[in-house]
Design goal:
By secondary structure, this protein is an alpha/beta fold. It has helices at 18-24, 66-79, 93-102, 114-118, 202-215, 238-242, 253-262, 276-285, and strands at 36-39, 57-60, 83-88, 105-110, 248-251, 266-274, 288-291. Helix 7 (253-262) runs parallel beside helix 8.
Length: 295
C-alpha cells in the first residue's frame, strides 16, 4: 500500500497523516496517533518499507550497539539516498564524529529532525528544498541549492603577482656576449636516441595471456571467460541469456552487485528508475540491456 510496484512512495499517501494512512491500510489507530512504526529486519528489495516513504511511517531497526547502527545507516543510504542526508541523536561527541566521517551523506544533522535540519530550518544550512548529493549521488555539487547557484558571475581580474620569466631576472638578461672566444666553445652534443622497442609477437602475447589465465583457473578454449559482464564479456552471449527476462522498472546498487556476482545481464526498461550508484556500477561493468518501452 505504501510502496508502488516500481518501489516508489505511493503518491496517494505522501504527506498524509498517520491516522489517514492507518485507515487506508486497515489498521485501527487512535485519533491522536502521530507516527506509525514499521519494525524491519533488513534493507533492500525484500524490505519495501526500507525506502523513503515521505509520510509519518518510520522504519524501525534494533541493533546491538552504535557500530552496528552505523553499518545499518550505510545500507539504507546505499539502497536509496547516497550523498543526501542522515540524522543522529546522541550526546557522545566521539560517536557523532564517527558518524559524520564515515557516512556517505553530505548533511549529517545532529540532535535535530533530518527533515528540518537538512533544509536549514534548524541548523543554519542554506535554506533550500533542492539538496545536492555530490559525487555519491552523481551530482555536480553537495550544496543546498540556493539562488547563488543560478548566477553567472563575470570577473574582472587585475594582475596582482607579476609574471617574470627567467630572462627578465637580474643577472641573466644583463650579461653581454662578445665574439671573442665564441669559436672555441663547443656546442653540446645531442643525446643518443633511445632504441625503438620492437614489440612482442602475436604468438608470444597469446602464450602470455594463456599463462596468466591459467593462474586464475581458466583453461585455453574454455567458455568460462565469456560469462563475465565486464570489458571481457562476449556481447553475443550475455544479451542472449537476458532476452527472456522481464524488463526491470527499478534497479538499485544491490541488484547490480548480485548480477555481477552471478555473471548475468540486467534487462531494464527504457523508463526504468536506476539509482545513481547502480547506474555508475552497471555502466562500469556493462551489464545493462535496454528493453524497448511498451506503453
Amino acid at each position: 500500500m505504501l510502496v508502488t510496484p516500481q518501489r516508489l512512495p505511493n503518491p496517494a499517501l505522501v504527506g498524509k497523516s498517520a491516522v489517514f494512512i492507518a485507515e487506508k491500510c486497515g489498521i485501527a489507530a487512535p485519533a491522536s496517533t502521530r507516527v506509525l512504526l514499521a519494525p524491519l529486519e533488513g534493507v533492500g528489495r525484500d524490505y519495501p518499507l526500507s525506502i523513503e516513504k515521505l509520510c509519518p511511517v518510520l522504519s524501525y531497526y534494533v541493533v546491538k550497539d552504535w557500530r552496528e547502527g552505523c553499518e545499518r545507516c550505510k545500507q539504507i543510504l546505499r539502497y536509496g539516498g547516497m550523498g543526501h542526508t542522515m540524522a543522529i541523536h546522541s550526546q557522545n561527541e566521539q560517536v557523532i564524529l564517527e558518524f559524520g566521517l564515515h557516512k556517505p551523506a553530505f548533511r549529517i544533522c545532529v540532535n535535530t529532525p533530518a527533515t528540518h535540519g537538512s533544509v536549514g530550518l534548524s541548523t543554519g544550512l542554506d535554506p533550500a528544498m533542492t539538496l545536492g548529493c555530490g559525487g555519491y549521488g552523481g551530482n555536480i555539487t553537495s550544496d543546498n541549492i540556493s539562488p547563488r547557484h543560478l548566477l553567472n558571475i563575470k570577473r574582472l581580474a587585475y594582475e596582482v603577482s607579476p609574471v617574470v620569466s627567467r630572462w627578465d631576472r637580474p643577472g641573466v638578461g644583463s650579461q653581454s656576449v662578445t665574439p671573442d672566444g665564441v669559436g672555441s666553445r663547443r656546442l653540446p652534443s645531442a643525446p643518443e636516441r633511445a632504441p625503438v622497442p620492437t614489440g612482442i609477437s602475436a604468438e608470444a602475447l597469446s602464450r602470455r595471456i594463456d599463462e596468466f589465465l591459467g593462474t586464475r583457473g581458466f583453461k585455453a578454449g574454455s567458455e568460462r571467460g565469456h560469462t563475465g559482464v565486464g570489458a571481457g564479456s562476449d556481447p553475443a552471449v550475455a544479451p542472449a541469456r537476458a532476452a527472456d527476462q522481464t524488463p526491470l522498472t527499478f534497479v538499485c546498487e544491490e541488484d547490480v552487485r548480485r548480477a555481477i556476482q552471478s555473471g548475468r545481464k540486467l534487462v531494464v526498461s527504457e523508463r526504468a528508475i536506476v539509482t545513481p550508484a547502480a547506474r555508475d556500477l552497471g555502466e562500469q561493468h556493462r551489464i545493462f540491456s535496454i528493453a524497448p518501452w511498451r506503453g
